[in-house]
Amino acid sequence: MSIVQPSEIAAAPKRRRRRGTAKVNLGLISVPMLWLILFFLIPVVLVALYSVGVLTLISYDKYLSLDLWRYFLGNSTYLGGPLGRGLFWKSMKMSLGVSVTCVLLAYPVAYMLALVAGRRKYTLLLVIITPFLTSYLLRVLAWRVLLNPQGVIQEVLRGLGVLNADGNVTWLYNSTFAVYLVLAYAWVPFVALPIFVSLETLDRRLLEAASDLGASRLRAFWAVTLPLSIPGVIAAFFFVFVPTLGEFVTPSLVGGASGYMYGNQIVDLFGAGFPDWETGSVLALFLIGVVVVLTVAFSRFLQPQQVTAE
Amino acid sequence: MNDVALSKNGARVLRGFFALVVVFLYAPIVILLIFSFNNSDIPAFPLSGFTLHWYHQFLVNADLRASLETSALIAVMTSIGAVVLGVLSSIALVRRKFRGKAAASALLLSPLVIPYVVFGISLLLLFHTIGVPRGMFTVVIGHIVITLPYTILVLVPRLEQIDESLEEAAYDLGASRFRTFRSITLPLILPAVLSAFLIAFTTSFDEYAVASFVVGSRSTFPIYLYSALRFPSQLPQVIAVAVVVLIVSLTVVVAAELGRRIAERRVGAA
Q1: How many domains does chain A have?
Q2: Which of residues 65 through 104 in chain A touch B, CB cutoff 8 A?
Q3: Which pLDDT score is estimated for B147?
Q4: Model's pTM, two decimal places?
Q5: CATH number, position A107
């Protein structure tokens, strides 16, 4: 994910004083690097040590073994068993569903902003993005008010007679559906941004050329617009898929028992009830591994500038 | 107009879809706003009258106010820390040459992709292992890590736009590196520094997942909110404070965006 290409400016001949540059260069970057090594990399190493028992919650009970890893990889609760049944796969499916939904919703929005909206496009983009900048918990709270059995949606359905007075749409609340809905709601604005950027930088003359050569608009979209916007779509997909893999806040607030995810399991293993930090570390480290693999696999599509509103 | 991107009808359909998405995005927030004035313990239709009771309740709820103060304090410390580290990193990445730059920038941006739950427990293990009691500063430490990449992403493009010869001129006139930074670079990147500060502030103020693992006895606002969500009787009050926070953050976001546009136009014109 290198963001800085050696700029052409630096290559141009210039009168430049060299005053102990090497030292200053390392000096500038060393504080942020040190911060991340201390508070980001070393903690991950500690997770690894906990996962094999070199460190343990009860300090006199240390051991060194891969038993927990074996259990994790073989047990059907987490990963093993019939493919796709464990909690990890449940979270994978959820993240996949949420990010695909987000892309499908955000693509037309970004398309309309970049190619139809004209001068007002930046203002309208701000309208789309603003909800993302407001409190996440508050937006989840809003959906709790909407979805719960005594909530707005079900009361309106009862009022309209669609639902009996004591009827209840069970899949609407404390369900996997609720988790999908709220997460998609939360991430759509964020997804619109990278797709917008890729569509906005699209050279319109290419579309004109396609049209001059007799292509219909649909054909031009399939042959020109869509392929050129794919990097933005992939980046958008990635930046929803990866962070939601460990999601536990939304599942615990609107998911109920059926919306229990991999992230909730990690939280509970570190929670107040019966903490099992060693098993929790196995789950956490496995997730880190998955994220690293995904990041490397996607890295050629990721231009980090796409996630800022510059 | 014969548009190459879309037919007239297509554009109409697309505008309609856009409007629907806007409704989808804002309807829950508007409904929250309505219920904050509703004179009932339960947020449900039909509405039972207008009240400012919940806003009053929020003003007298000491725990809630304390949590807002704690979050504000954490967010200020986080954003100062993240912006300072972000400026250092961005200058190094854009202006300086050193070995391992690609690796350095990968490390600096890697917190963008770590699931927060995993980062939260990693920090918990760190503080547990070295015996640091959890409190406000442990939250600040974690929040600086997760907001640093955002500050870098805002600052780097701005630095790349600035003509390096301005800094060269200052060096040639005998200014030290620090003097050059203070008199030339900093004023030019100030709009980006302010947006970086705001992004770090709002991210930290709203952050629940990491904070929930490393917070001490003083709750942050998201942690207060999360626990209040489990007690239905507190719901209307929470909705009222939610609305206040929402409006404040919307105002700040819109003001910041307008301010940034104006400032950048001025810098661009200069």
Answers
A1: 1
A2: none
A3: 96
A4: 0.86
A5: 1.10.3720.10
